[in-house]
Structures are given as structure tokens and as C-alpha cells.
Design brief:
By secondary structure, the chain is an alpha/beta fold. The protein contains 7 helices and 12 strands.
């Protein structure tokens, strides 16, 4: 498998593992904890066998500073949307991405709850719609400025879980823009950004700059993923607000 195929395979297999666990006797917060740990163990162990020379940055593993001098770093979120997963919702995802020299190169976002997956090897964005634009925001912490941005671009706001689920909805044409300004980490958006860029979408910081990965500080303050036309309008509106 090349890197793109490997990302897709890993995300799908981890998703199957998570579904099997959710169908078992564990419930509530314990289910989220067990799911996080089990998916992480599978992804990390698989990468160590299949890409032994690469480094790994995972939400669920201790950070190894040696990654900072590495060119190839796998950035993974074994279960993005733990609350949604343990709450038996469908808007959770598995994120697997490879950053090369700080740039997202390969990636996959699997949505096991609905049997859907997007990866950089094969992703294609759905065509735009003539309906009123739909802007997705966090289900639990709507970002500051969301109402103003929605008004500026004429969008309807809808909350959703996982960053991967929101990105997948934009790729699938179910929504038009995903806006986040409450702070994330690299594992939250590296795979979504990789897949969105491969699909020809806008995927960047809200000031229009590219996101660099495998940084010493893994926090990412904000994120915008959108169809090209909506993305341009949103970035112009945000630039005017930030000026």
C-alpha cells in the first residue's frame, strides 16, 4: 500500500474496531475511554510495523520530541468525537494523516457510524448546491463570530460533532462551510485538512494562511474548510472583521 491507501485502510479498520466495541456491553464514559485506547493501540502498532521509520503524533499517546526533527510524521486521532461515540450518535470519526515536512500529504477520515470514508487517494467533492449555504460549527462550543460570519455570507448555522464529520459533510455536499475558532490540536484537523485539500476545497486558518503540522506547539487556533466560492466569501468577510 502507498501512504494514501494505508491511511484509508487504517482509518477504516480502526472504525470497524470502534463499532464492534460500541455493540458490546460497555457503555457511557467507559466506552469512550476504551474506544480511544483500543483504536490508538491498533493504529500505533500497525504504523510501527508498516512504517517503522516514520514518527507518530497521537492524541492518545505521550508526545515524542524526536518527531520534531523528522520529515514524515503520522498525525492521528483514533476517535474524534468521543462524546458523540459514547453517546451513540453518528457524528464521530477516525482521523489518520501523514504530514511530510509540515504539510498534510496523505490522509483519511472514516465515519464508521454511517459507513462512510474519505481519503486522499480517491476523494471527490460533491457539486455545489443552489440552496442557502449551510455552515457547520461545534456541537458543544459554537465559535465566537459564527453568527456574524453566517450573516455576512447568508448561511444557516448547524451544529455537529467531530471535525472529521463536519469536513465529510462539506465534501459530500451536505453542507458548504465548516468554521471553528475555539482552538484545536493538530490531530483534530490534519486528516480533515488533507482530505479537504485533495477534494479541491478551501482548508486553512481563518486568516487564509496554511496550517503547518508537526510543530512544537500542537495547538491550532482556528480552521476554515469550505467549498471554493463560499470559502472565498468567508475569508473576505473574516478579513474585513479582523482588519
Amino acid at each position: 500500500m502507498d501512504d494514501h491507501q494505508l491511511a484509508a485502510w487504517l482509518a477504516q479498520r480502526a472504525g470497524e474496531l470502534l463499532v464492534s466495541l460500541r455493540d458490546g456491553p460497555i457503555e457511557g464514559r467507559a466506552l469512550g475511554f476504551v474506544g480511544d485506547q483500543a483504536a490508538n493501540a491498533f493504529l500505533v502498532s500497525s504504523l510501527k510495523v508498516l512504517r517503522p521509520d516514520d514518527h507518530i503524533l497521537s492524541e492518545e499517546s505521550p508526545d515524542d520530541p524526536a518527531r520534531l526533527s523528522a520529515s514524515r510524521v503520522w498525525i492521528i486521532d483514533p476517535l474524534d468525537g468521543t462524546q458523540e461515540y459514547s453517546g451513540l450518535r453518528s457524528d464521530w470519526a477516525v482521523h489518520v494523516a501523514l504530514a511530510v515536512d509540515g504539510v498534510p500529504f496523505a490522509g483519511a477520515v472514516a465515519q464508521p457510524g454511517i459507513g462512510r470514508s474519505f481519503d486522499t487517494a480517491s476523494v471527490q467533492a460533491a457539486p455545489g448546491s443552489d440552496r442557502r449555504p449551510i455552515m457547520l460549527v461545534s456541537r458543544t462550543r459554537s465559535p465566537a463570530g459564527a453568527e456574524a460570519l453566517a450573516q455576512a455570507i447568508g448561511a444557516e448555522i448547524r451544529p455537529m460533532g467531530s471535525a472529521g464529520a463536519k469536513t465529510a459533510a462539506v465534501i459530500a455536499g451536505e453542507a458548504d462551510i465548516y468554521f471553528h475558532a475555539g482552538g484545536q490540536h493538530e490531530w483534530d484537523n490534519c486528516a480533515p485538512v488533507a482530505v479537504a485539500l485533495a477534494a479541491g476545497l478551501v482548508a486553512c486558518r481563518i486568516d487564509g494562511s496554511a496550517i503547518r503540522y508537526n510543530q512544537a506547539d500542537v495547538k491550532v487556533p482556528d480552521l476554515l474548510i469550505a467549498r471554493a466560492d463560499i470559502g472565498r466569501a468567508a475569508l473576505e468577510a473574516l478579513a474585513a472583521r479582523l482588519a
